[in-house]
Amino acid sequence: MSDARALAGVRVVELASTLTSYCGKLFADLGAEVVLVEPPEGSPERREGPFIDDRPDPEGSLTFAYFNCGKKSVTLDVGHAAGADSARRLIGGADLFLEGTPPGTLAASGLDYASLKRLNPRLVYTSITAFGQDGSYARFAYSDLTLLALGGLLYLGGYTDSPPLRVYGNQALQSASLFGAVASVSALYAAAARGVGQHVDVSAQECVALALENSVQMYELEGTVRRRFGGEQRQAGTGVFPTQDGYVCLMAAGIASNRFWRNTVQWLCAEGVPGAQALNDPEWSDLDYLNTAEAKRRFGEIFLPYSRSKTSAYLYETGQRHRLPICPVCSPAELLANRQLNARGYFVQALHAATGRQLTLPGAPYRLSVTPWALQGGPPRLGEHNGEILSRLGGAPRATANAQGGA
Amino acid sequence: MSAERQPPVLEGVRIADFSWIGAGSYATKLLADLGAEVIKIESSVYPDLLRTSRPFKDGVPGVNRSGYFADRNASKRSITINMKSERGRELAKALIVKSDVVCNNFAPGVMDRWGVGYETVSALKPDLIFISMSMQGATGPEKDYIGYGMTMTALAGLQHLTGLPERLPVGTGTNYPDHIPNPCHAAFAIVAALIHRRRTGRGQFIDLAQTEPTVAMLGPAVLDYSVNGRNQTRTGNAHPVFAPHGVYPCAGEDRWIAICVENDAQWQALVEALGGAPSLSEARWRTADGRRREREALDKLIAGHARSHEAGDLMKRLQARGVPAGAVLDAPGVLRDEQLVHRGHWRRLDHPEMGVTTYNRQPFQLSASEVGPTRRAPLLGEHTEEICTTLLGLSPAEVRELKEAGVLV
Question: Chain B residue closest to A148 (CA)?
Fold first, then answer.
């Protein structure tokens, strides 16, 4: 067994879904074998854009490509007896099963936890669902947007004068995958030693609630309901400010203190910003004053003419030289050109077999010195590994495998 | 679920936790709630900034009164060590040697300056897992640049992609990377390294640059640029395919509902739930293309109808017809949401200074093992004597002396 990969030898079966895909990816990228079980028409993620060259082809989804690199694709129709049987035997030999179907759905196929536990007591069976396995919302229809709403994060996003606005990028679904991954890998750690697995029940709504920062406690302890504040300074000097070529994000005071205020003033004075001296006046060392409309207005009057006259890169460099939490607001193009990310070799390449193209995508989210993160390959074609995986199932009648879409 | 109980899944793992404020503290909190023994090493000389952050119980400040701190640090024990003292650094090193994992989220170099950097402590304990979660990583030209969760959302691309196209970028309105992307990635890497250690006997160093997991949450946008050359920007609540897909005002002050219609059957169900108004029944709305083409007009129309409904009632009417819909909940809303309450998401724990207050449970349940928090947040230095006498071989008298000498403070 390879010592070079942290999760070498860990066998994962993932029933393809948007709730499980990032979870499966985390396992694959640290060396686990992840078999992606797709229905004959392919994972729902294959129908999500953006697409390569904007052609809506199930082999061309960049969303699928990102979340499924290095997994092995097997097509099985688990709604039919033969497909369910193959899936059962596959999971019978696995350490971890990931699924994101509405609660109760898999019992008819014999792929529920109670059935699989009898087959494989060591199995960790992880259900990542919108609302968890029980309760009155358990079978609610959902989307990323409605989960952000019911988890409470949506309410905090947006402008004071706009409806709540959604954060980019299916963050509710990805959060559920992330917490699902932590719970699963921890349950595997125990199962390997104890020889007994268990059922992990993840609720995406609850995952979103973990992102509410201090807002529940603000209400409970101080009676304050936190609201959205986008487009305005959160306190004087803290927020997003326009520059000559974009925006910067600045926290002139810092967090929960004003430890950086002096640096901000020194920076602005060194830059010869008119009126910056006034920011040395004693009232600015009072956190309560920074929260007033007057303080925000005065700071804006001094800072905005300056920020608008400089590039984001200039403000980033000079502000950081004065030890300030300031940075540019980066677009995807700017991320790909970011010198720090590039110096660290952050972006990686993956071969997209269906088109022969090399894709450039985000790489290691963590660097493990002995067992580095690495993609095991590009995104699989639909059913690409049917032969390899299904032939492994001892006693599998070939005809059955083929009938379920064997390549 | 199974009645065969097991101990917590990470029982037996000990973590020396130097993390403070944001992402680090939530990473170790996750592991603590899964059963790891997490020892928070802090100091009254320079307390964790969250201890002095709002909200405070009854609005009265105090290092043991912050609800923000409590929610992130429940299930841990607290020892105070003054890392500015030589003896304090020795004791911290002794604690590390008795631990399986070390976690910190300081700027690069801080742990080294204290004499507890990876090179030093791994020489004493080679199978140690040591994670550093600095803002931009341990290497590279901007490694020493500073920032917080909010600036990170900007630097890592999330701000730019969130908000209305013609207005300032807004992001989530929170320090999002601190709460989910970074703690979860860190916790996953730590447990994966523990699995590897059990197999091989080897420890390792984990360098987590907090910007990097955050960018990893934006994969499709990065690919859209690197492959198609399209530099995406913010689009409000609009979806590239589905319409309607948005947030609509409901009865009351600042009350909203999120609705997504993903196919024509759901559209018909929505029209029915809103009372079958003629303006919604027009032929132009019956196809996905038609709805997408005039999405702004459609949004206005739906907003006009939603306004007369209470958000929770409308959600149930829509859900009864299979339409994805969710009331937009604020803090009081999530606290009383019937599903979160049913799931036992809110856990109430009794604290000597704060009394009974609300904590998040982890957003998952295990069929055979307990998931925390089960232990309230620690008082500053509450377990100093307990940890010193049980793990570091000090006598109560020695602990007292070291407190008086300004070491265990």
Answer: B328
